[in-house]
Amino acid sequence: MLNSRARGYLRNYCDGLRESYNADDISRYFSLTDPKETKLRDALLESNDFMQLITVADVDQLQGQVVSVGNPGLFTGRVEGGRYSRAVGVEGNEYKLVETDSGAALTFAMLSVWANAGTEEEFFQRMQAFTNQSFGLDMLRIGFNGKSVAKTTKSSENPNGEDVNIGWHELVRTFSEGSQIISDPITLDVDGDYKSLDAMASDLINSKIPQEFRNDPRLTVMVGADLVAAEQYRLYQAADRPTEKIAAQMLSQSIAGRPAMVPPFFPGKRMVVTMPTNLHIYTQRGTRFRKAEFVDDRKQFENKYLRNEGYAVEYPELYAAFDESAVTIGKVTEPSEPAGE
Hints:
Layout: H1 4-21, E1 30-31, H2 34-45, E2 55-59, E3 63-65, E4 94-96, E5 98-107, H3 108-117, H4 120-145, H5 168-175, E6 181-182, E7 186-188, H6 197-208, E8 220-223, H7 225-238, H8 242-249, E9 254-255, E10 258-261, E11 271-274, E12 279-284, E13 289-295, E14 300-313, E15 320-322, E16 327-329
Parallel strand pairs: 2-12, 6-15, 7-16, 8-10
Antiparallel strand pairs: 1-13, 3-4, 5-14, 8-11, 9-10, 11-15, 12-14, 13-14
């Protein structure tokens, strides 16, 4: 049941939404004006740290050339009798947006707990944080895991949004015809193909990233949690000095001398080397619609966000990866117990 305090807070919350968006009825989908679109985009960017590292932009068309916002490579030189300049862009690299519907549902039981736990202002803040974080994390989840666009999605079969949209990894696989993604089986193990994550990342950089970009300080190693956990365990077992243990702790922050991170919903055994700004999310301007309503039959309050959205990789040649299906983590053995006296 939704207690009376929570119900009162929710009525005020809905009144605030109605006034903020200048909407007559927020229980029906209503469009967002340009300033409100910007405000919502900014709120999604602030919902988690990784969203602030990538490129999130509005576009006018459902389909078009990928927007160039970066500047990799050399832009300085000279031309006899003229002025030096270098064009930026990848011909034929296009994006395509599809209708995308998100819904953040809060159960009546949870809302009642929130209402009893603090002030009305704190209740509103929790509502906004939950909604924005849910939408923002789903955008990343689909970006890393999306493989197709189904007419009707099935979350039970595709829990990471594999059928919602085509994400960055799959876009690069298609655009580069697989040349930027290593899919041949490899083993991470002291006796395997790669002895460490440093070796894996170094090989990606040297074999897949064009030479003129290999020393760019913006190149970042994105690595799955399973790989980090296995490598940290191995390092801890081999460490006999405090400095080696510190190195193991820092593994998720630096690999092969590059900044490293474990992004949200990143596949556990995948490794990617790219610039975070190389990963794009586009939303068609003027297509954002919101809706918020009590749904008593489901005992929850639903906050919905409808828009045309899609993914793009600005420079596919600056995205190199080990596909998670190719990676086997070597056997991790527990250290033997000392023999009893």
